[in-house]
Specification:
The complex is a heterodimer of chains A (187) and B (67). Chain A is mainly α and 187 residues long. Chain A has 6 helices and 3 strands, in the order H-E-H-H-H-E-E-H-H. Chain A has helices spanning 14-31, 38-57, 60-67, 73-86, 122-137, 139-186; strands at residues 33-37, 95-102, 109-115. The longest helix of chain A has 48 residues, at 139-186. The radius of gyration of chain A is 29 Å and the shape is globular. Residues 147-187 of chain A have low confidence and may be disordered. Chain B is mainly beta. Chain B has a domain at 25-66. In chain B, the strands form 2 sheets. Chain B has a 3-stranded antiparallel sheet, with no helix packed on it. In chain B, strands 1-2 form a two-stranded antiparallel ribbon. Chain B starts with 9 loop residues before the first helix and ends with a strand. In chain B, 4% of the residues are buried.
Chain lengths: 187, 67
Amino acid sequence: MPTPAKGPRLGGGPAHERLMLANLSAALFEHKRITTTVTKAKRLRPFAERLITFAKRGDLSSRRRVLAVISNKGIVHELFTDIAPVMSARDGGYTRITKIGNRKGDNAPMAVIELVMEPVSPKQAVVNEAEKATAKAAPAPVEEETASAESADSPESAQSGDSAESADSAESAPSAESAEEATEEKK
Amino acid sequence: MAVPKRKMSRSNTRARRSQWKATAPNLVKTVENGRVTYSLPHQAKVVTDSAGTALFLEYKGRKVADA
């Protein structure tokens, strides 16, 4: 579930925002790559990725839920038949946003949002496996060391804290008085 | 429609505009082929040919858009 966006709606109101997101996602699925403002691209990303998740499920009810957003049957067909199989191996992160600088007319920051159509790189899977293996081997001895270290530290720290507080209170009282005297002399 | 009653003085106009300030962008320094270049972070860069005409925008070795 995408996190609800903070701040004002895109466009004039809630209905306008729904329509803009629907039209932007339809354009994204039709052209695979669209140029828009950074704000719209950031709002579009969770919205469009949710539609792709429906497309990956691929049954009739999910198709109807997508059709409730995108009214163009041709684009929805393309989403379910062309885009969904490409994304089948990918667990989220179906879109990529790249900033391309400011627009000439109104200096609005622009971005390209595109579908990530490349196959999932096998390198990362290998890296994850290696990390998991090292994590399994590492944690047991580390936990024992930290527990012993905490028990040793705790009594010392409590004592030092008390002494520090008493020292502060003793010092602070005379210093405050001296400060008051100094201000009186200035007057 | 609400309309200003009095002309705004030259002094007030200039006092307001004196608060307009430019801020320097934070650039990242990279060395490409022995040449030091400064560029905006997290933003696609324009790739040019030897004559200096813009070809396309590139980010992290990936073509992003036409220039």
